[in-house]
Amino acid sequence: MTSVSASPTDSVLRTGGALAAAVTKLNAVSETPRLDAELLLAFAAGRTRAAVLASPERALDAAAAALFATLLERRARGEPLAYLTGEREFFSLPLAVSPDVLIPRAETELLVELALAIVASAAQPAVLDVGTGSGAIALAIKRERTDARVTATDRSAAALAVARGNAMRLALDVRFVESDWFEELGGEVFDVILSNPPYVRSADVKGALGFEPKLALDGGADGLAAYRVLFAEARRRLNAGGSLLIEHGADQRAELVALAEARGWRVAAAHDDLAGRPRVLDLRNGS
Q1: What is the pLDDT of residues 235-261, one digit of tens each?
Q2: Domain assignment of residue 186, yes or no
Q3: Which of 156, 196, 201, 250 could form a disulfide with 277 if both were Cys (CB 3.0 to 4.6 A apart)?
Q4: Integer angstrom CA distances of residue 55 from 13, 59, 102, 161, 252
């Protein structure tokens, strides 16, 4: 017979009350409170979510109960789930994340899909991910195109440490360069340059976003500061016919198209994410 601890947390867990109480606590901060509670409980217990749900009568030991309570309090204060568990899946890759890197979002997978389509017929394409953070984009491309020469830059040494750790754990050979934009890349050119740059307006970096690195989010007063740099510097970094793929905010497309065209770029295509929101521009040199 399974022994049961007398702790309140264990007792509530056996009756399903622990999850119910956690869901109530998380309703105000999460769009998926039950999923969050289940994942935190599984993480604290050192088991899979499926195992936790399959054995609701199984008691947590004191250490796991204490960890669950701590994690729940942190989540209730708005701290992102990925930072609490230290992991986020992106393009089917399990990536380690920390507060030093932006949490990869599902909508950013569109950048990867578009880049892979562009280089589908190219042999050993040269791909650059600018502002790599956790390495999500670069690693996803390398996993799908093992022959690609993938380079990823970031000006944050702490972020690059996370990215290199992910590459090592996933056995993916991506070159990481600590660089402010393109500064440390010499005269290198690429077939595709991708970037999910900081594009949140400074005044909007608050709430849950306040837990993520400001360097990866804050795009200046109008949210467009990073694009001005990209549009000015990326042209000479592309091979003939190369593409600059940029992610952007849902309300920024018109401004970005005007800004890009004023800088001599041609909009080859504009893509919406799965939710139908404007998300990516494919830019090429010249008219």
Answers
A1: 999 999 999 999 999 999 999 999 999
A2: yes
A3: 250
A4: 10, 9, 34, 38, 47
